[in-house]
Design goal:
By secondary structure, the protein is an alpha/beta fold. The protein is built from 16 helices and nine strands.
């Protein structure tokens, strides 16, 4: 869909300045979260304007972002500490800084489902979606893109896919680490307490979970300005019910990934063979090894629901005691509606067959029932777009909306 952008990526890769700087490994650190940093790339204002201009050829509203591009952007990888199960790991992500001195709000972006170590944001930072997000820093933000546990610096562990506690804590600690990084390295761009959050697919779910945690537990630490969530699987039980109601599901690796991720942290105690038929159960761990793409994993599974799952799971998932841990894990890692206090938008493509728009509609209804005022929450339908196609339109719409809250958007 975005072949026209390939020339831009080549241009950005060749003409962008590349340099590396790592902190002295022997240097003592007095930070709680931040460990080290590495400058990966500098994107110039001209390159960023060219990127959004070419993006506008395939999605016209992207052209509206060009006038807000006002600075070069330095893209840094940072390594930081975060909790994982009963211990601590080193995690990583991108911190993108505008090259104009001043104080800026933080915008934290949570990416969608990824199975490849090579596609982690801090590794594949020239990916078109990551470029779109990184370049927002040129409009007056400090932009963060966490890798998530299981990628980047922590790729030696299983990614706890759709595990809420681990996901939220790793993002919160990345935000904290970015502030320590800016202070320790005395960057020209310094963060304020203002925070914008945004994500798509898995990242949409992660963003709403993050918002829930901030509003209910960390509002004194983070001044959350706005939240944009795209096509998230907010209710894991509803997603599972939807998939199991089908004869064919085009992305079988999604549900397999979710079950593996929750099993990797002990939330699900069933064996794979309790859920998947034997020919697939034996392959799950090696397929999700960080070296197989989603399409490659799909090719080794089957889109036929009756062949993928055991008859016992299909028949007894909702009631049998055997699957109690699955039901509990789905419930515990779903988003529970609350009375939202932050301006929030839920985006979803009306042609989405992977995560149906009914998941967002259900979430919206639950928020209304929890007392959320209409002034704080809006659903935005991306007409004519499926799950993959909705990524760029959602990104451009969310960025444009965020700009309304800053002086850049006045």
């Amino acid at each position: 869909m975005f072949k026209i952008l390939l020339l831009t990526f080549v241009f950005l890769s060749v003409s962008g300045l590349y340099s590396c700087h790592k902190n002295d490994p022997g240097e003592e650190k007095d930070n709680t979260y931040y460990i080290s940093s590495q400058l990966l790339k500098t994107r110039t204002q001209l390159e960023i304007s060219a990127f959004y201009t070419l993006l506008g050829i395939s999605y016209l509203p992207a052209l509206n972002l060009v006038p807000y591009v006002n600075a070069d952007v330095k893209i840094n990888k940072i390594v930081y500490k975060t909790e994982y199960l009963d211990g601590e790991i080193n995690a990583s992500g991108l911190v993108c800084l505008p090259e104009v001195a001043g104080e800026y709000p933080i915008l934290c972006f949570q990416n969608g489902t990824n199975t490849l170590h090579s596609d982690a944001p801090s590794v594949n930072y020239n990916n078109e979606l990551f470029v779109l997000i990184e370049c927002i820093a040129s409009m007056g933000f400090i932009v963060l893109i966490p890798d998530y546990p299981g990628f980047g610096e922590s790729e030696d562990i299983d990614h706890p896919y759709m595990h809420k506690e681990t996901t939220v804590s790793s993002i919160l600690n990345m935000i904290r680490a970015s502030k320590e990084f800016a202070e320790k390295e005395d960057t020209s761009a310094q963060p304020t307490d203002d925070l914008f959050i945004f994500g798509y697919s898995q990242g949409g779910w992660a963003t709403l979970a993050l918002q829930e945690a901030i509003e209910q537990n960390y509002s004194s630490e983070f001044n959350l300005i706005a939240s944009a969530c795209g096509a998230g699987p907010y209710n894991l039980t509803s997603v599972n019910d939807y998939v199991l109601s089908l004869t064919e599901y085009p992305q079988p690796y999604y549900l397999a990934y979710m079950l593996k991720g929750l099993k990797s942290v002990g939330s699900i105690t069933n064996e794979y063979s309790d859920i998947f038929n034997s020919e697939y159960a034996s392959e799950i761990d090696q397929l999700f090894d960080g070296n197989h793409s989603g399409s490659e994993i799909n090719a080794e599974l089957t889109t036929d629901i009756n062949k993928l799952f055991t008859s016992a799971y299909l028949i007894g998932y909702k009631t049998d005691e055997q699957y109690a841990s699955v039901r509990t894990a789905f419930k515990d890692n779903s988003i529970s509606a609350w009375n939202v206090s932050t301006p929030t938008r839920l985006y979803h493509g009306d042609q989405d067959e992977y995560i149906p728009i009914s998941i967002t509609e259900e979430m919206l209804s639950e928020f209304w029932n929890a007392g959320t005022p209409e002034s704080k929450l809006e659903m935005v339908t991306i007409s004519g777009y499926d799950h993959s196609g909705g990524v760029i339109p959602t990104g451009v719409k969310a960025i444009s909306w965020f700009l309304n809250f800053t002086s850049s958007g006045d």
